[in-house]
Amino acid sequence: MRHPMRSPRPVLAGAQLSAVALGLGLLLSACANPDTHHLETAGVPPTSPSLEHTLDVMLRPSSQAAAETFLAALPVALATHDQTVANPHDPRRQDIVRTLQYDGLALSVYRVQSTGTRFPVAVSVTSPAYRTRSGLRVGLPSREVLALLGEPTARHGGTWVYQIDAANAAPYELTVQLEGGTVRSLRWAAYLD
Q1: Is residue 159 one of the residues assigned to a domain?
Q2: CA separation for the pair 106, 138 (Å, rounded)
Q3: Does the residue 26 lie in any domain?
């Protein structure tokens, strides 16, 4: 009696399916590997932007193209919130400030509606996972803030405000929120004009 030969197609389909599964597995493992993210995110959760890179783009703007490149490369935010604001040059026009929420970091991006131009205008941190090159971070004692930054421009209870006009940076304001002598949040806000 002759045994019918099995078609090679099921074996081939199984091999193809295994190859696709292996490829997807490698792709997913590469996406989950924090080493595959931009170097700027080293030391912070891989789903959040780098504080230092954000401050460099916001406070030391080199070009609109650099700001757009930075904004286009941002990781997906956990949440966003849009606020309509009057344009500072023409109050009859309305612009948008979009706040992107990440784990312990919020980034505000100004969008000029008439041109579509976008640029970061403020960043706030509430997590000790973020620190500046100088070591400023949430959780620092107030005496260390004074050692790093000196006396604030103004004090309002537990809120210290530094107005900074550095030579190689746009003017900005740094607000340090203290609770019990310890930094609870930091907020950098660039002056629009």
Answers
A1: yes
A2: 14
A3: no
